[in-house]
Design goal:
The complex is a heterodimer of chains A (287) and B (88). With 287 residues, chain A is an alpha+beta fold. Chain A is built from 5 helices and 17 strands. Helices cover 16% and strands 31% of the residues of chain A. Chain B has 88 residues and is mostly beta strands. In chain B, strand 3 and strand 4 form a beta hairpin. Classes of the chains: A alpha+beta (287), B mainly beta (88). Chains A and B meet through strand 1, helix 1, strand 2, helix 2 and strand 3 of A and strand 5, strand 6, helix 1 and strand 8 of B.
Chain lengths: 287, 88
């Protein structure tokens, strides 16, 4: 699979970035935002005189198949959020998560909660993966359900800077009961994915000394067979994901061999406007 | 698609360290709604649709060489990311 990235940086700044990060794939340079504009994704909320910010795209990633056709795309409303490699690989190649199978329980639904990623950088969107092993002959329900029944849901507890996106559930199919009522059921085992990221403020120390984000929440479901329904169930979960606080060019300042982002930003500004960087930053940060 | 709705960031507030908190609870020096933190709310353009051919892109790479993306990928599938900047 080929990888390309494109930004409105000059090629010399990108060469510096590639060097300091050991990047070998092509970092493409679109300093006049011509490609960004041709794609129709220029951030037009930014005034054309608002330098150096004008020219950035709404950030997004396209997945393109061997024939050159767009197979999927991932766009976010903020430059802080981006898909993870795990999400992209799954979209491109199918299921990539190598998890042990959920241990089945006789006659009962078994649930497993896992995180699709080994290291959680701020802004990188990973999936919380909730798997239900459903006994043969039983099924779980999707929304909507009639009063008194419980649909399959995953609720993640709020935390500061934790960004939880809507859950992705598999398609349901209609199932008509003996009473004539039609419900939406999942066929067989069910996997729910909840995309989410953190933005650096949800970190806690784990018992083993690692820094983690501790995700907690509740999984709800109800299973039925053709004759009867079991009582609705809910199960709390708590899992720890190794995580880091920083993921920005500013962190390069800590590395003597890294790109000097202050110099490079200064160059970008001076190419675009006569205004000093200090004035621009004061305006952007003021009340 | 109509005009993109601007997120006017009524939630923006400074924390005790002087950083600005945005709608996600992220802290940063730039006030939400200004500079690079001018974000859309609701629908916003995401470019060519799934199922369309990825447009031709011919631009300079960091090496200085011009790259024709479809020729360069040589029949491989690809991931193509548009991002803000490598310098901020």
């Amino acid at each position: 699979m080929a990888l390309y990235t494109l930004s409105y940086d000059e090629a010399d700044a990108l060469a510096d970035f590639a060097r300091s990060h050991g990047i070998t794939y092509p970092l493409l340079s679109d300093p006049d935002s011509e490609v960004i504009e041709a794609f129709g994704i220029l951030n037009t909320l930014i005034d054309p005189d608002d330098h150096p910010w004008y020219g950035i795209p709404y950030p997004g990633v396209y997945l393109v198949d061997a024939d050159g056709v767009i197979a999927d795309k991932f766009f976010e409303s903020s430059f802080m959020l981006r898909p993870s490699a795990e999400q992209l690989l799954r979209a491109a190649l199918g299921e990539q998560l190598e998890l042990p199978p959920v241990e089945r329980v006789d006659g009962e639904v078994a649930v497993d909660v896992a995180f699709d990623g080994e290291m959680w950088w701020p802004g990188v969107v990973h999936d919380l993966v909730v798997r239900f092993a459903v006994p043969s002959g039983q099924h779980l329900y999707g929304e909507p359900v009639p009063d008194g029944m419980v649909a399959t849901t995953v609720e993640v507890d709020d935390q500061v800077s934790l960004v939880v996106q809507p859950a992705r559930l598999p398609p349901t199919s209609p199932h008509t009961l003996g009473t004539g009522e039609t419900l939406q059921i999942f066929d067989g085992d069910v996997t729910v994915r909840v995309p989410m990221t953190h933005l650096g403020r949800a970190l806690v120390p784990a018992d083993d000394g690692r820094t983690v984000v501790r995700l907690t929440g509740t999984v709800r479901w109800q299973s039925c067979d053709d004759e009867a329904c079991h009582l609705p169930r809910n199960e709390s979960f708590s899992i720890e994901v190794p995580a880091a606080k920083h993921d920005s060019p500013a962190s390069e300042l800590e590395h003597p061999e890294g790109m000097d982002v202050r110099v490079r930003l200064g160059e970008m500004v001076s190419r675009r406007t006569d205004r000093p960087l200090g004035d621009i930053m004061r305006e952007a940060t003021a009340d | 698609m109509g005009d993109v709705m601007r997120d006017d960031a009524p939630y923006a507030r400074r924390d005790e360290s002087g950083l600005w908190e945005d709608r996600f609870g992220a802290l940063g020096p730039v006030k939400p709604g200004r500079g690079p933190r001018q974000d859309p709310v609701g629908e916003f353009p995401t470019g060519p649709a799934i199922g369309e051919r990825f447009p031709d892109v011919r631009v300079a790479a960091h090496s200085g060489d011009e790259v024709d993306v479809h020729a360069d990928r040589a029949g491989r599938p690809m991931v193509f990311a548009f991002y803000r900047s490598a310098v901020w």
